[in-house]
């Protein structure tokens, strides 16, 4: 499958690098109005820079577009590409509002497009191990989940960056980091029912936010909580508590380092088993499963209903943190 990457910030370039040896997806074109055509990303990876977004979605030789663009462009770009018959992969968050993601999902459905989403963390071996345990009911009835994903990498950005702009990246680190955590919650627990969230400006000045805490009640009556801070060194943890035991997954470093994850399982008798899981190319695994789904070889594990549920949670977190009220999800 021939694809074009739209958006060549750090992550857009990372996608091209991760797919360099893929036998299923070939990046033939890339475009970013902010990037010079002499940038080494084009020459080092034999990627064409001669077409803009409109030309790319009109190009019959390009099968798919990969959107690594700022959040505010996702809706129009997904819909435009889908209406041109292109398969679409969109970085997270797919949208900031429920009504927006519904329009995007409808455009994909109308044009037989499978929407890929940048939730590559679902392919992390430790999280796959946890998902299998939950599917096999090894922890018994689930009581609660809690998680923290924090990183101060964003403090290195210019304060005018869209990634720190509450209009385009609201609720602190939610759209960059927290959205992965709620994606895990949705894949494990299904849709949410009630949400309360608080943000703070501690290291950053208002209106920019650097702390976020969230409490969620899911429709199956299970509770979950998450915290995200963008002004502290990297920290990653995911906990699941069940009647027959608990699991804690700890990440030592961010995706750009090759440190293993630690998986701790405590069984009903209180015995703890510690395992380590090495880093794998989760970006490539996500894209290639999406490509296989497009060709009819397999299913894509990120279902559109889950994408919509996650955006509902995101929008509710944004609204709850702004209003200091509990938000109920009624759709």
From TrEMBL:
Transmembrane residue ranges: none
Domain GFO/IDH/MocA-like oxidoreductase: 128-248
Pfam families: GFO_IDH_MocA, GFO_IDH_MocA_C3
GO molecular function: nucleotide binding
InterPro entries: Gfo/Idh/MocA-like_OxRdtase_N (IPR000683), Gfo/Idh/MocA_Oxidoreductases (IPR051450), GFO_IDH_MocA-like_dom (IPR055170), NAD(P)-bd_dom_sf (IPR036291)
Chain coiled-coil ranges: none
SUPFAM superfamilies: Glyceraldehyde-3-phosphate dehydrogenase-like, C-terminal domain, NAD(P)-binding Rossmann-fold domains
Positions of the Gfo/Idh/MocA-like oxidoreductase N-terminal domain: 2-119
PANTHER family (alphabetical): BILIVERDIN REDUCTASE A
Protein name: Gfo/Idh/MocA family oxidoreductase
Species per Swiss-Prot/TrEMBL record: PS1 clade bacterium
């Amino acid at each position: 499958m021939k694809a074009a990457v739209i958006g060549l910030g750090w992550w857009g370039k990372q996608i091209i690098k991760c797919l360099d040896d893929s036998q299923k997806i070939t990046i033939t074109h890339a475009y970013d109005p902010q990037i010079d055509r002499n940038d080494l990303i084009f020459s080092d990876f034999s990627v064409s820079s001669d077409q803009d977004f409109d030309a790319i979605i009109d190009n019959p030789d390009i099968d798919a577009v990969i959107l690594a663009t700022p959040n505010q462009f996702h809706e129009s770009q997904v819909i435009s590409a889908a209406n041109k018959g292109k398969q679409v992969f969109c970085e997270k968050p797919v949208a900031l509002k429920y009504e927006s993601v519904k329009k995007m999902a409808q455009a994909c459905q109308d044009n037989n497009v499978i929407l890929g989403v940048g939730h590559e963390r679902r392919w992390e071996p430790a999280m796959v191990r946890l998902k299998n345990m939950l599917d096999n009911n090894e922890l018994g009835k689930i009581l609660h989940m809690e998680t923290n994903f924090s990183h101060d990498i964003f403090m290195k950005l210019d304060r005018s960056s869209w990634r720190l702009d509450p209009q385009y990246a609201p609720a602190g680190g939610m759209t960059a980091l927290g959205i992965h955590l709620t994606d895990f919650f949705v894949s494990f627990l299904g849709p949410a029912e009630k949400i309360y969230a608080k943000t703070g400006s501690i290291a950053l000045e208002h209106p920019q936010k650097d702390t976020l805490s969230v409490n969620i009640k899911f429709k199956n009556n299970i509770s979950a909580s998450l915290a995200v801070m963008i002004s502290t060194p990297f920290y990653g943890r995911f906990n699941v508590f069940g009647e027959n035991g608990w699991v804690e997954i700890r990440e030592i470093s961010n995706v750009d380092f090759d440190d293993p994850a630690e998986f701790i399982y405590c069984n009903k008798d209180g015995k703890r088993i510690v395992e380590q899981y090495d880093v794998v190319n989760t970006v490539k695994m996500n894209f290639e499963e999406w490509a296989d789904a497009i060709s009819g070889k397999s299913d894509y594990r990120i279902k559109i209903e889950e994408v919509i549920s996650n955006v509902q949670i995101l929008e509710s977190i944004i609204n709850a943190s702004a209003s200091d009220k509990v938000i109920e999800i009624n759709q």
